[in-house]
Structures are given as structure tokens and as C-alpha cells.
């Protein structure tokens, strides 16, 4: 695609947004921006520095001294690649508590909008179509059943070496994240009126990608 294009992908944890977003970005020659990874990177830093996640003042002070960037498919936290660390379960359990803080969202949204103003992007998260890129060329809301999402997340954690966890615990964690994400005061997870809904529960990644590409390409 020759002209600059913006694609917003929203949806709950484990629905397949990131995997789908990366493939779509490659297919249309755009940069993939995982906004959830930005919140995860900040959460990782707060945990590593023993910052109380309920202490908003200290948390925001830390954010002001933090740099988060995407380059060549990697996320950088203070100039270090943290692709693996941000996927650890301790981060997953705490990221929604950080992401619900109004001032944190406002700061990161500014960064996300600045990135999208400069190049073609496929951006995924919880509030892309509603808040970050309300004028995106295409908006998609990716969903899947909670059991399917827990199963996928559990398999990823086992592959990453996580041992002391059951699928029921993962389902509980995802359910808690859904509740926090959907009920937070600032930018809750909601489907934009003009978004296409993509249910990945019984679909392969390739089937979901093809469904989205057909819409983008007007097939």
C-alpha cells in the first residue's frame, strides 16, 4: 500500500490481537505497534523497582523517567529489549492495575498518537479505535470465548517455563483483567460503533487474518 494507513485492533486479553496484528502489518507493509506491551513495559519497571502500584505519585514520577520505544519488531524499555520479560505472569497479573490509571493512559496515548501520525501502523490494544485512533482507516474488535483465551494463555505460559499454574487460575486472572479493563473510568475496553467484530474462537490465525485482509482490500 502506497498511502499512509492506520488500522486499529482492539479486544480483550488472549483473543489473538497481537498475533493477528503482526501478520497484518507484514502483509500491508506497516509498522506493528502493540500498545499493551507499552503498559507491560512500564509495569515491569515498576515491579523491578519495588514501586507500590497504588502509589500514583511515585508511579508517575517513574513514568517521567522512562523511555519506551518500538524498533525492528522489538520493544525497548530504557534502551533495553524486554520482549520476553514483559510476558511474564507477574506482569500479566498487574498490568491492568497500572493501565487503569488516568494519567498513565494520557501519557502513553500521546506517544501512540505521535507514532501513528508519522507512518502506516497496525496498532492494537484496548482503546485504539475509541480513544487513540478514533479516525483510523479501519477498526477491528477481536474477541474469543474466555475458555479459549485462557487455554491459549496457559499454553504460552507453559512454553515459557511457567510451572506453578493451572488453567483455572489463568481463567480467573483473565476474567479479573476483563472486569478491570471494561469498567475502568478512563478509556474502558469497548467496541467502537464502526469496528468490524472478528470472533477467533473457532478460527485459525490464518483464517482470522484473511477475514481482516478481505475487509481492508475490499474483497
TrEMBL record:
Species of the source: Acidilutibacter cellobiosedens
The enzyme's E.C. designation: 2.7.4.25
The protein's name: Cytidylate kinase
Keyword Ubl conjugation: no
Location of the Cytidylate kinase domain: 7-217
Gene Ontology CC: cytosol
Top EC category: transferase
SUPFAM superfamilies linked: P-loop containing nucleoside triphosphate hydrolases
InterPro entries, per the entry: Cytidylate_kin, Cytidylate_kinase_dom, P-loop_NTPase
Annotated CDD domains: CMPK
Keyword annotations from UniProtKB, A to Z: ATP-binding, Cytoplasm, Kinase, Nucleotide-binding, Transferase
Amino acid at each position: 500500500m502506497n498511502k499512509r494507513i492506520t488500522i486499529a485492533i482492539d479486544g480483550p486479553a488472549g483473543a489473538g490481537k497481537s498475533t493477528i496484528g503482526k501478520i497484518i502489518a507484514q502483509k500491508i507493509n506497516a509498522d506493528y505497534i502493540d500498545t499493551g506491551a507499552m503498559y507491560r513495559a512500564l509495569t515491569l519497571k515498576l515491579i523491578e523497582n519495588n514501586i507500590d502500584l497504588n502509589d500514583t505519585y511515585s508511579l508517575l514520577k517513574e513514568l517521567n523517567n522512562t523511555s519506551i520505544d518500538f524498533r525492528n519488531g522489538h520493544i525497548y524499555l530504557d534502551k533495553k529489549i524486554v520482549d520476553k520479560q514483559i510476558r511474564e505472569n507477574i506482569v500479566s497479573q498487574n498490568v491492568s492495575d497500572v493501565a487503569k490509571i488516568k494519567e498513565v493512559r494520557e501519557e502513553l496515548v500521546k506517544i501512540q498518537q505521535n507514532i501513528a501520525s508519522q507512518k502506516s501502523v497496525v496498532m492494537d490494544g484496548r482503546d485504539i479505535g475509541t480513544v487513540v485512533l478514533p479516525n483510523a482507516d479501519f477498526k477491528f474488535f477481536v474477541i474469543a470465548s474466555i475458555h479459549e483465551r485462557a487455554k491459549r494463555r496457559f499454553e504460552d505460559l507453559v512454553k515459557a517455563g511457567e510451572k506453578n499454574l493451572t488453567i483455572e487460575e489463568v481463567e480467573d486472572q483473565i476474567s479479573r483483567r476483563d472486569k478491570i479493563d471494561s469498567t475502568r473510568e478512563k478509556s474502558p475496553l469497548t467496541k467502537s460503533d464502526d469496528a468490524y467484530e472478528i470472533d477467533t474462537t473457532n478460527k485459525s490465525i490464518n483464517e482470522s487474518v484473511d477475514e481482516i485482509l478481505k475487509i481492508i482490500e475490499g474483497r
